[in-house]
Amino acid sequence: MIVSTKQQQIAKLAKEKPKLVFTSLNHLLNIEWLYEAYRLTRKDGAVGIDGETARDYEQHLDANLQSLLERVKSGRYRAPAIRRVYIPKGDGKLRPLGIPTFEDKLVQRAVVMLLEPVYEQTFYDCSFGFRPGYSAHQALQSLRNHIMDDGGKWVLDVDIQQYFDTIEHTQLRNFLDQRVTDGVIRKMIDKWLKAGVMDGSKLKKSVIGTPQGGVISPLLANIYLHYVLDEWFANSVKPRMLGRSSLTRFADDFVMVFEHYEDCYRVQQVLTKRFTRYGLTLHPDKTRRVD
To answer: Coil, strand, or helix at residue 150?
Structure first.
């Protein structure tokens, strides 16, 4: 059975049974799945801590993939530390970026290919970042439509401080429990969360956060905010508003639009408490109400 057919079956089951917890996904992970993950993995990226390039890995591709499959299935796979580099930001500061090894990128891609069909049925349409078929342009168009069509007069523009670095692992595991408890997959995710970061010659162990740059990090970050923000806004916030309201999110950047000032003000007050509960902090200078 080809990979895309298996993914369609996962997606169909996830959509038909939104409360279903997937206890067994790793049986779909076979050598063909890894070949497809290899095909989808960027070959021109920077190297990780082992210095191995995609070309190096390809020289013994069959043997490498067979070995990788056996290590993942048996639990012997060891997630290497992420190599940290710093890239300049527009404000003169530096943004930390994590670079996994090529093999780690490949196996992260393989796991994303298993999880994405599940969570694409779970995520809301207000989420646009790092999802197949969604783009920043669509997010902007959606935001414009909400302002123009819903009588949006007040905007809450929100920035989460160091989001990827402050995701709480225990909370993330609790969220994952709601849809995926497959032992092999969950052990892999735990290994990536604990792998640590090689910053120069120093190894820093990870107790919170998912390093930016990892293939699986954007999906884990989306899962976290789906439960902390998207689901909460749809089920608890929106029904309590005096007027119309909306949420548009791209990864960790999001904008809320309100018809009434009172709604905008109330949500801003409660949002800080909501995020604090999950270990997240709103940036005091970049989070603002806009008339």
So the answer is: coil
> What confidence category does residue 212 fall into, taking pLDDT thresholds of 50, 70 and 90?
confident
Give the predicted TM-score (pTM) of the model: 0.95
Q: What is the DSSP string of the chain?
A: --HHHHHHHHHHHHHH-TT--B---GGG--HHHHHHHHHHS-SSSPP-TT---HHHHHTTHHHHHHHHHHHHHHT---PPPEEEEEEE-TTS-EEEEEE--HHHHHHHHHHHHHHHHHHTTTS-TTB-TT-TT--HHHHHHHHHHHHHHTT--EEEEEEBTTHHHH-BHHHHHHHHTTTB--HHHHHHHHHHHHS-EEETTEEE--SB---TT-SSHHHHHHHHHIIIIIHHIIIIIGGG-SS-EEEEEETTEEEEEESSHHHHHHHHHHHHHHHHHTT--B-TTT-EEE-
Do 154 and 261 meet the contact criterion of CB atoms below 8 Å apart?
Answer: yes
